[in-house]
Amino acid sequence: MSTYRVLHHTTYAYSDEVSSSYGRAYLTPREFPGQRLLAHDIHIDPGPSDRSAGPDVYGNATTYFHVTQEHRRLVVTAESLVEVDQPPPPDADLPWEQARPTASTGPLAVEFTLDLTQPEITPDVKAYAAQSFTPGRPLLEAITELNSRIHHDFHYRTGSTTVSTSVADVFTAREGVCQDFARLAAACLRSHGLAARYVSGYLATEPPPGRERMIGADATHAWTAVWLPTPTTWLPFDPTNNQLPDDRYTTLAWGRDYQDVAPLRGIIYTEAATSTIDVSVDVAPVG
C-alpha cells in the first residue's frame, strides 16, 4: 500500500484578454477497490463565477467552471491525497476469445469494443495484434506479449505527437508517447473483439540513486485495460513501461479514448493571437 500527494498545476497564458472561459477538468482521482481518495481540492485563478462537479457517463468525477473575469492568465491547480493498494492481477487463463463481451455477458463492456468515430482499427493494426492473439491462447499470455511488443517496437519520444495524432500515424512512425501507446493497445484489442479502456493517471517515479526528487518533474500517464468476464473486472497493463500497474499507479479517469478524459479542455472567448500552456505534475510519496 502506498499513499501519494499529487499536485497537478496547469497555467494558460494568452497574448490578449480572455473575456470568458469555460472549462471541464478530469483532475479528481477515482475511487474503486484498490484506490481511495483521502483528500482533494481544485483551485482556479481567476475564481470562476460558476462551478459544479459531478460524475460523467463512465463514473469519472468531473469539474465544470466558467470564468467571466477578464484575464490573460488562467491557473488550475489540483491537489489530491490518494491511497493506492493495487490488488494482484486477476486470473486470466481463459482463451482470449472467451473474453469478448456480449449483450448478455458484459453489456457495459460492449461499448469498449467499438472503433472510434475517427477509425483507429486499420488492417495494419489488426495484423499486428494477430501475432499475439493466436487461436486459443490464454488471455494473460496474449496481453503480456502484446504489452512487450509495443514497448520494444515503438520508440518513446517526447514531442513526436500531439493529442490529435492518429493511431495509424503512430503505427507508421513507430514512435510516440504514453497516450499513443495506450491508444494503440486499445485499437489492437478492439480489432479482435475485446473490450479496451483508455486509463488516465499518474506514475510515481523514483529519482536516480544519490539524487533528490525534482519537484514538478513528474507527468500525467496513460495505460490500457482489458475486460475479463470471470470474475467481471478489468486487467490494466502499461505498454509504455512493459508492466502491469502496481502501487505506483494512481488512476484519474477512464473512457474509450484520450478525448473522453482529457485532464483539461474548454472554450475561450478572446482575440488573442497566441497562447501557451505550462503543466507541472508532482507525485510525492507520503509516510
From TrEMBL:
Q: Which residues form the Transglutaminase-like domain?
A: 170-241
Which InterPro entries does this one have?
Bac_transglu_N, Papain-like_cys_pep_sf, Transglutaminase-like
The record ties this protein, via Pfam families, to:
Bact_transglu_N (PF08379), Transglut_core (PF01841)
Check the record and name the PANTHER family matching this protein: BLR2979 PROTEIN, BLR5614 PROTEIN-RELATED
Full protein name: Transglutaminase family protein
